[in-house]
Design brief:
The chain is mainly alpha-helical. The chain is built from 15 helices and 6 strands. It has a two-stranded antiparallel ribbon with strand order 1-2. It has a two-stranded antiparallel ribbon with strand order 3-4. A two-stranded antiparallel ribbon has the order 5-6. α1 runs antiparallel to α2, α5 runs antiparallel to α6 and α11 packs antiparallel against α13. The N terminus and C terminus are likely disordered.
Length: 506
């Protein structure tokens, strides 16, 4: 509905109705004011929630450059940042409930203005961003100043939007301390080292010797100076992090992957080889686009970008964006926790090791590495379509994280919008992130629906040589299960009754 076209007609009705009564009533005046505000409200990339999402992506990209990719960690950051924004916003909505914000009353109707929402949401975002991406506090401060807000305002006065925003961030931050993420190195035995592995995980297979082909084997990375190093296993305890909306990490744990000796695994390893040997320019571009390169925002950030595409496409208001980002990023956060539950429970092998063992001295066609293109080689020399600096993800394979998060976030967007249509296109140069001296002509990737986009993300990981098909299929389904469960919880939080007729929160 075009409110700018509708507004003059409605205002005329109000005017003549008020003239007939010979006196302007207060409710009529409020209605006119609200219609005017709705007609002029910033939408899409101009709304404040969208702007903070952009800043959150900047923080995530800078975090990646500073600490290398850590998708589990940044998914939690983004999930909690948008939870703080959502909680602050609920106090200006007529029926929504916060997740962590307690003891703060809903603002009266005449105080539920766009300006107050913008202030509250901004302070919540600012405080949460400073907590999680603390190295980039100057960036966040500059954004506050650009919005005409005082970054030094520490008010916790719940009768003001500034206070509500600060309180919302406080309560999210405090509630999530000791949630198993070990953000502060607080878990016993961590010696104050953030994100220290307090489970003392040790791979069955040594980086130089594979003794159990069904299990994960670490692989060497090569740094910028050309030195080999063992990256270890990324956050091998992440399944112990308390979920945001799920009941438990293993709530939707999938069944086991195919084992060595099975016909299914033999076929799926062959599929990995065949897909790589026949990579088209479009395939390469898809692998690189979904993998990301420098300043990556990982999967949670990638789907936040896609959500922003929806905001621009559908001309979203602040209200719509706050709700959408919360839903999508809460799904991403819990999907990572669920994904890691499966990864660490099954501790499953990646194609890198499987191809080497299955094909050993057999000659195959495969990618020879940067500047080499497709060549004939022995199976034991096969490698993923990936640069030396990030040759293979440093954690077990089953299920695929890209598939899980993409399946979940795509389903969240489908449920939120009520339609599977996406309609985004991107132009890319194949090889730019993997073999910069062997570039193809630019190609256009089309993402017609949310579901197809998730499936393209999933199959890109098989094409790239990071996963077999079983990792992908089970990951997509796991993500979708998380999203469907989350959506019911989300409806409760925004005050919409589900079939069970229950509500959550205050």
């Amino acid at each position: 509905m075009n409110l700018k076209r509708l507004f003059p007609a409605l205002l005329s009705i109000l005017f003549f109705g008020m003239m007939a009564c010979k006196q302007q009533s207060k409710p009529a005046k409020n209605m006119a004011d609200n219609l005017m505000a709705m007609a002029d409200e910033p939408r899409g990339k101009d709304n404040v929630a969208y702007q903070w999402a952009y800043i959150a992506l900047e923080g995530t990209a800078l975090d990646t450059d500073r600490f290398r990719p850590r998708p589990t960690v940044t998914s939690r950051y983004l999930g909690l940042i948008f939870t703080a924004m959502f909680d602050a916003w609920t106090r200006f909505d007529e029926k929504a409930h916060p997740l962590y914000l307690k003891g703060v009353d809903r603002f009266p109707e005449n105080k539920r203005t766009l300006k107050n929402k913008e202030i509250a949401v901004s302070y919540a975002a600012f405080r949460a961003l400073n907590e999680y991406y603390y190295s980039d506090s100057t960036l966040f401060k500059q954004k506050m100043i650009a919005l005409g807000l005082d970054p030094e305002n520490q008010s916790r006065d719940a009768s003001t939007p500034e206070g509500v925003g600060n309180l919302a961030a406080d309560m999210v931050i405090n509630a999530r301390k000791n949630d198993g993420s070990n953000q502060y190195g607080e878990v016993e035995g961590s010696n104050g080292q953030p994100y220290y592995d307090y489970t003392n995980y040790s791979p069955v297979n040594d980086i130089d010797k594979n003794i159990d082909l069904n299990r994960w084997q670490p692989k060497y990375f090569i740094d910028e100076e050309g030195n080999k190093y063992n990256p270890g296993c990324l956050t091998p305890y992440w399944q112990k992090v308390k979920p945001l909306l799920l009941e438990t990490a293993d709530q939707f744990r999938p069944g086991p992957p195919p084992m060595v000796g099975s016909e299914q695994l033999e076929k799926e390893v062959q599929e990995v080889i065949d897909l790589q040997a026949n990579l088209t320019p479009e395939n390469k571009a898809l692998v690189e686009f979904m993998r990301d390169g420098p300043k990556s925002v990982q999967q949670a950030g990638h789907w936040l970008k896609f959500a922003q595409d929806v905001s621009e496409r559908d001309n979203h208001t602040l209200d719509q964006d706050v709700k959408m980002y919360f839903l999508v990023e809460s799904v991403a956060m819990d999907a990572f926790i669920s994904c890691w539950d499966s990864k660490m429970y099954y501790d499953y092998a990646r194609p890198y090791a499987l191809v080497h063992d299955y094909y050993q001295d057999k000659v195959i066609k495969a990618w020879g590495g940067p500047d080499k293109g497709m060549v004939e080689m022995k199976g034991k020399d096969w490698r993923p379509y990936s640069p030396d600096a990030f040759l293979c993800p440093p954690f077990p394979s089953y299920v695929s994280g890209h598939s899980t998060i993409s399946g979940g976030c795509a389903e969240a967007l489908r449920l939120f919008t009520g339609d599977d249509h996406f309609g985004v296109e991107v132009e890319l140069v194949p090889g730019a992130l993997t073999e910069p001296n062997n570039l193809d002509d630019p190609v256009i990737l089309k993402f017609p629906t949310f579901t197809e986009t998730a499936e393209m993300a999933g199959i890109s990981r098989v094409m790239g040589g990071y996963h077999i098909q079983a990792d992908n299929v089970a990951g997509l389904e796991l993500g979708r299960q998380v999203a469907r469960y989350h959506y019911k919880k989300y409806l409760n939080l925004i005050g919409e009754n589900t079939k069970e007729g229950k509500t959550v929160g205050q």
